[in-house]
Write a structure and sequence with these properties.
Blueprint (H helix, E strand, L loop, with lengths): L13 E3 L2 E3 L3 E3 L11 H13 L4 E8 L12 E2 L3 H16 L3 E7 L15 E2 L13 E2 L2 H20 L4 E6 L4 H6 L14 H4 L1 H14 L4 E9 L8 H11 L5 E6 L2 H4 L12 H4 L2 H5 L3 E3 L6 H9 L5 E4 L1 H5 L3 H6 L14 H8 L32 E5 L3 H13 L2 E5 L8 H5 L10 H10 L5 E4 L6 H7 L3 E4 L3 E3 L20 E2 L1 H5 L11 E5 L4 H12 L4 E5 L14 H10 L3 E3 L2 E6 L3 E6 L5 E5 L2 E5 L2 E3 L2 H7 L2 H6 L4 E4 L9 H14 L17
Parallel strand pairs: 3-4, 3-13, 4-5, 4-6, 6-9, 7-8, 9-10, 10-11, 11-12, 12-13, 14-15, 14-17, 15-16, 17-28, 19-26, 20-21, 20-26, 21-22
Antiparallel strand pairs: 1-2, 18-27, 23-24, 24-25
Bound molecules: adenosine-5'-diphosphate and iron/sulfur cluster.
């Protein structure tokens, strides 16, 4: 296949100062949960993007000095020779695939707690860190001189490590941002006050970084294009700063100062949502501009270039979901693109401090540890046919990956629609993009004649035994509990067996059970998106809703996916009443008894219905029936019977996809899966 000439513009080489990028696809700096702790895994992950056609591949935020230590988050660092060696693994691997490698030099200011280095954080004021009871010390002039020296030294180490682009990172509420802002910069010396004074440090760093990296490397800046949060410099001032500083850098990486928009989840933010903030800046700067927008549509990308908004299509998430996105566009294989669903599970890896994972791309983060390639898979290790029962994310992924290996695969699904939970959930408010998990796999199936799919085929134990496949994967999923058992309650709660107690499965089913008119209580002990999304659905349907959660806020875990603020804002705007750090302990059809987790003070809230969002039970009846009779199992010729995904252990969609993929990879594999494979940071 060849590419559509409409997309030619995306494959034009573009100059970045002394360098030439081979096309317009640019992986902006993004967290990986690997950083300094997993240098080999990181190198393999970034190199995969280079192999997939990205012209520029950057690190995550890379600390210049121990006074910028974001422990326990796994940031990158360039503090010493050991860091140079660790980062060189990435630059070499990226260069081997023909891409340019960039590093985002970073100082966190008061944002960080320096929990490992135990240096006092530094900033223009003495302010508390983001999460810890630690305050920064104030930077005086000799400290600013030291800061400039650290930055230059780190830039020299970046060159030693082989980076082609070196960033000065001047946004996202880190140290340099504080200098720029008239709100946070209250200094009375030459680094505070007038706009010229506030940009002084950035100007100095740009000039000195340029000196440090020499004429053969490019200088990049990450900078705020618009003030949305009110804390930074006003947007008009930012424009003025850009016109002053523009000539000093080779490329400008522009963001808005609101993470919940810049990397907003698809529940709240559309593709290309930053365009209005970036318009006109490229002309103002006279330098190449890169910006992000969860771009997965080549038409949208072309529009961005043709309208003169961007020179480079910046991507974090689309490059995570599909490292081969540029190649697929280039080769006219658009239908194979694994589109990001905007769930932000990748970002949660950084928030939780674990190596990156992705809902759509099960190979993300497994490039080094497991040797998984997103586009290649080992051929079948036997001639056995395979039965996969259940076409949720686990079953779909297992079936497709096994068929790609060449096995003869049958996929049997009880319902008449495929997709399991992603199909059900994609009908809820804001979750439509989650259907992409199903759609991508259905698309791949079209090219796999050795995969037979049977919807509306509920398999009994006798069906499985009589089917004749030596390998059987049970991907039969999980069902939401009705009895209140979850993190908090270990036994069913009184009255939860009432017909007016509904689960998320009830509310997602095509025929939602009827409740009389009146208020509804949602009891959330899951603490992620489900309870909030159901509250939204019920409130939009005109119900008075109280969300009772054992968490400290609604959707507490959504903090890790950067969805907390917008989730709570939306619930409040819909008039949903929130009751945090509380549990529902009984229900009688007219009221839900709520207990405060700290005081056990109780109160009955009027409720004609109770929705329980607590935990899920594996749907493993079929498995239990099959193992009940080992002789029948043996006689059937089944050599491997395995539960996969939620049917084994309910978790995120990302876990189910990974589990399905892992099952497919492990079957008759030449190399076993090795969960114990770790690495130590470079000495
Ligand atoms: P996972 O997230 O692990 O993929 P899901 O709950 O999304 O799990 O999907 C499980 C799928 O399995 C559902 O579509 C369900 O209809 C199907 N299923 C459950 N039991 C059977 C069965 N006995 N035969 C065929 N399909 C089944
Ligand atoms: Fe996109 Fe979700 Fe994958 Fe992140 S985890 S890249 S948001 S699909």
């Amino acid at each position: 296949m060849t590419r559509d000439p409409r997309y030619d513009v995306l494959f034009e080489p573009v100059r970045i100062g002394p360098l030439t990028a081979r096309n317009r696809f640019y992986q902006v700096p993004h967290c990986s949960g690997m950083g300094r702790a997993w240098p080999q895994a990181l190198a393999a992950m970034r190199a995969m993007k280079a192999a997939g056609g990205w012209a520029v591949v950057n690190t995550e935020y890379c600390s210049i000095h121990p006074s910028s230590d974001d422990t326990p988050y796994p940031y990158a660092s360039l503090w010493d020779a050991g860091d140079v060696r660790a980062n060189a693994r990435m630059t070499e691997a990226v260069h081997d695939q023909g891409a340019l490698a960039g590093v985002e030099l970073w100082h966190g200011g008061n944002y960080v707690g320096n929990l490992a280095s135990r240096e006092p954080p530094i900033d223009i004021m003495s302010l508390p860190s983001r999460t810890d009871p630690v305050q920064s010390r104030v930077l005086y002039k000799d400290d600013i001189r030291a800061l400039r020296r650290w930055h230059s030294d780190a830039a020299k180490r970046a060159v030693e490590a082989g980076f082609d682009l070196v960033y000065v990172y001047a946004t996202h509420a880190y140290l340099l941002d504080h200098f720029l802002s008239p709100v946070s910069n209250q200094r009375t010396d030459e680094y505070g006050g007038s706009l010229e004074n506030r940009v002084r440090i950035l100007r100095e760093l740009l000039i000195e970084t340029r000196e440090a990296i020499g004429p053969d490397r490019a200088l990049a800046v990450r900078f705020t294009a618009a003030n949305l949060g009110g804390k930074g410099a006003p947007t008009e001032e930012l424009r003025e700063m850009l016109s002053i500083l523009g000539p000093l850098a080779d490329i400008w990486d522009l963001v808005v100062d609101d993470y919940t928009l810049e990397m907003g989840s698809s529940r709240f933010v559309e593709e290309g949502a930053q365009e209005s903030y970036l318009a006109g800046l490229r002309q103002l700067l006279g330098k190449p501009v890169v910006g992000v927008g969860r771009f997965t549509s080549p038409d949208t990308m072309v529009g961005m270039v043709k309208r003169g908004v961007l020179d480079f299509i910046g991507a974090a998430r689309p490059s995570i979901a599909d490292p081969f996105l540029p190649r697929k566009i280039e080769e006219g294989r658009l239908e194979e693109i694994r589109e990001c669903i905007g769930c932000n599970i990748c970002y949660a890896s950084n928030s939780r401090g674990n190596p990156i994972r992705c809902t759509q791309n099960p190979t993300m983060g497994e490039e080094w540890r497991s040797g998984w390639h997103p586009e290649q898979i080992e051929p079948a290790g036997s001639k056995d046919s395979i039965l996969v029962v259940g076409a949720g994310p686990a079953g779909l992924e297992a079936a497709v990956a096994l068929a790609r290996r060449g096995y003869a695969v049958t996929l049997a699904e009880a319902s008449d629609t495929l997709g399991g939970r992603v199909t059900r959930e994609s009908r809820l408010p804001g979750l439509a993009a989650w259907g992409r998990v199903r759609d991508h796999r259905l698309e791949l199936m079209k090219g796999l004649p050795n995969l037979q799919v049977y919807p509306a085929s509920r398999m009994s134990a006798a069906d499985v035994l009589g089917f004749g496949a030596p390998v059987v994967a049970l991907a039969t999923g999980a069902a939401w509990r009705r009895d209140g058992i979850g993190r908090l309650h270990r036994a069913p709660q009184p009255g939860f067996d009432s017909a007016a107690v509904l689960t998320p499965d009830d509310l997602m089913s095509p025929e939602v059970p009827d409740l009389p008119p009146g208020p509804v209580v949602i009891y959330d002990d899951d603490r992620y998106y489900m309870a909030a999304v159901l509250a939204e659905k019920l409130a939009l349907g005109g119900r008075a809703v109280t969300l009772v959660t054992t968490g400290g806020t609604a959707a507490a875990w959504a903090y890790f996916t950067e969805e907390l603020d917008r989730t709570n804002a939306r619930l409040l705007s819909l008039g949903v009443t929130l009751r945090t750090s509380s549990a529902v302990v009984s229900f009688d059809g007219a009221g839900a008894e709520v207990s405060c987790l700290f005081s056990d003070r109780r109160e009955v809230l009027a409720a004609v219905g109770l929705v329980t969002v607590t935990a899920r039970s594996p749907e493993d009846l079929l498995y239990r029936q099959l193992i009940q009779n080992p002789a029948a199992l043996r006689d059937s010729g089944i050599r491997l019977l395995q539960r996969v995904g939620d049917c084994l252990a309910p978790a995120l969609i990302a876990h189910a996809v990974h589990a399905g993929h892992r099952f497919a990879r492990e079957l008759d594999a030449s190399k076993p899966w090795d969960a114990a494979r770790r690495e130590l940071a470079a000495p």
